[in-house]
Amino acid sequence: MSKSDRYLSHSGMKYKNENEAQKILLSSLLQCYGNDERLIRGSYRRIKGYGRKQIEFDDVTLFRNNKDELLKNYYIRKIKTKSGKYFSITPFGLIQYCNIKKSFEDYEIISLLKFLEFHFNQFKSKQDSKLFKSLNRIIKNTDDLDLRYKFHDVISAIKTRDEGFHLTVDCVYKLYRGSVDPGLDVLVTSISYFEPDNEYFLKFDINSKKSTGKPETITEEKFNHMFAKFIISAFLHSLYTFHLKFIYVFTPRPNRRIAILSIDKMTKNKKEHEKNIKSNKSFDKIALDIVKQFNIELKSNIELHSKQLDVLV
Asked: CB–CB of 119/225 below 8 Å?
């Protein structure tokens, strides 16, 4: 069987390439989040995630032909329960899906949020319990195009590295300085998954202010939580500072000479200004605290790397 034939569906359609097949299957699993009919329950009815059995995929043949490749790359994981085997998308699968997609539709952003909410809540504290109400308020008051752009901006900066038995995810935040200047990549968290022993190792975390000589072993739930927390924090920080930049540019100031603009352009700029203000005003104390804390951590991390460079002077 040729490689192209592997992706032949039972409906008679041939998908263009491997990415097309993966996009369809990963999307199917991502959209399970938030759907009570797709809950996976373990012992004592403990919720273990969201997903599907093999026979529950819209295109069973497509999934069966690509299942091994998806499991090998850890884009999906197998969850065994008394009621059978389920398959669920992993953070690595989420990154792969977003890289294939390159842009999001509104329904996909909702699915992404549900995925993040589930994994974030595995280790949530009492202080975090109202976070998603805050996040939903921001989304409601923010332009859809801005949401899509910033979501993709944050997730596309995350890097994965295949190192044999180790699969490493580097949660990188990109600081932009302008449309031409590529800015600065800041490493926030780095975690490795060791496939043979099904173990996760924390190699670097911005809060530890150091890269550990001996990586710390963490649970899968802890990794999923850290991954979700990073995206939420980075997304809020990116969105708030993005709008803040334009609010600063377009806010009238005393003695400021305004260039002669057409009425249409002035009206457009005013609407953009009001839109940015509306979005940032929807950030309550919970969201603002996350933005401020993430900003402190970024500055601390940059300072840490600067000190390491001082050794060479």
From this structure: yes
